[in-house]
Amino acid sequence: MLTGQQYKDSLRDGRRVYFEGKLVDDLESVPALAVPLQRAADAYDAYYDPAPDAVNPVTMAPRSPDELRNRIPVITEMDLLTNTTYQSLMTLSVAAARLEAHAPEFVPRIRQYVDDARRADVRIAECITDAKGNRSLSPSQQEDPDSYVRVVERRPDGVVVRGAKLHISAAAFGHDLMVMPTKSMKPGEEDYSIAAIVPVGAPGVTITNTTYHPRNRDDRDFPVSSRDSIPDSMVIFDDVFVPTERVFLDGQTAQAAVFAHSLGLWERLGGVSFMVQQADELVGLASLIAEANGTSRISHVREKIDEMMIHATLLRAGLEAALSHAQATPEGYYYPDDMYTNVTKYQGAAQFSTMVRHLHDIAGGAVVTAPSMSDFDNPDLAPLLDKYMGTGSGISGKYRTQLFHAIRDTTADSFGGWHHVTNLQSGGGMFAQRLVTRKNYDIERARELALKAAGLAGS
After folding, report:
1. Is the pTM of this model over 0.85?
2. Are 80 and 277 in contact (CB under 8 A)?
3. Which of 265, 253, 246 is CA-nearest to residue 102?
4. CA 343, 344, 350, 351 torsion: positive or negative?
5. What pLDDT digit, counting tens, does each position of 332-360 carry?
6. Which residues 6+ apart lie within 8 Å of 458 measured at CB?
7. Closest by CA position to 423, among listed 344, 354, 356, 350
8. Residue 218 above 70 pLDDT?
9. Could you give the CA distance from residue 283 to residue 67 in angstroms, rounded to a whole number?
10. β-strand 22-23 against 158-169: which pairing, if any?
């Protein structure tokens, strides 16, 4: 296993990482990159075990529904890079089982990589979404054939790929990129049916970064995002060579969606796990700010908080259902139920805006107009701010202002906007969750019940 410092040193591999148009030679030299880098390094130190055969325990696949359930609080506390690594290794384990019957030649490679990745203590970023070009056209019909990542050359010892992947969290901080088709493919799209592991530092890989990390402001005004941010990237593959042993699918159109479907399970479980915690956090913020405002006994405020609590409880129930109905691969690895995971993720995304609206309505306009915490450092301003931002009964102006900043940071600023979009889009978007629901819902039982209610059963 690696220490945090060894991890940092391992990233000095010649990778091409850009931030705001500039090539970054040292990730620690850019504050918006240095903070998430340190978070990832801290996670290495937290799990470090000097034993020669030690592996990070969170990268091991759960062997029972209880193990899967016990992993949830770990998922919600771990840094995003460790989380994507866990999801990637779980995805590969499930995909290997699903490929066994139709593309068995790739299975030993996948399992060998999973073992090697655990032993080497590497971190992995997930590369799924392509540039896509004109969304109304399939990959093979695009004006620019590179709109989807594709194989441009096959060699005896590997393949050469070209294209780009978008919305890739933590790409600049990983060691490997898990590249997979973003969708099902059809005959004639064999070149787009490529899944592989690509080192971040491989020649031809270029990474851009965008982030919600706050800059040039007092970190106290951003109590969450200033200490826990992660950049999202475009990863460009400009004729990148991938050796055969790291190619996990090549031309098998019928199996092109196996990896994305397998990843969707783990991404949505992670998304649901976070949504459950996030919903409770929103309830807590609503309760605290209502108390600080002196409005906690007003009927419409109480009703809004009640509705938020019902939403949070339903999400927790959905997560529990997904875990209670967990399914196993032939190797005995447990993963969450498709139906309950997707329905809960959909519900969380669909209702998120309403929950935030309730919170903003309860809190009031100071969510976006409260003084900066640095204003309280000024001895002339502090007494006045404490007087006019305070509400009596032990509610100081500074305390109430801190609550406003927490609400703004998590729901009404760059980080909050990021959450609004990612709650909708992560794990394939709401349409993908509807498709999974349609596939798994017992519609025949529903129809039989309807016929019985109409007196038409057996007719």
Report:
1. yes
2. no
3. 253
4. positive
5. 878 888 899 889 999 999 999 999 999 99
6. none
7. 350
8. yes
9. 28
10. unpaired
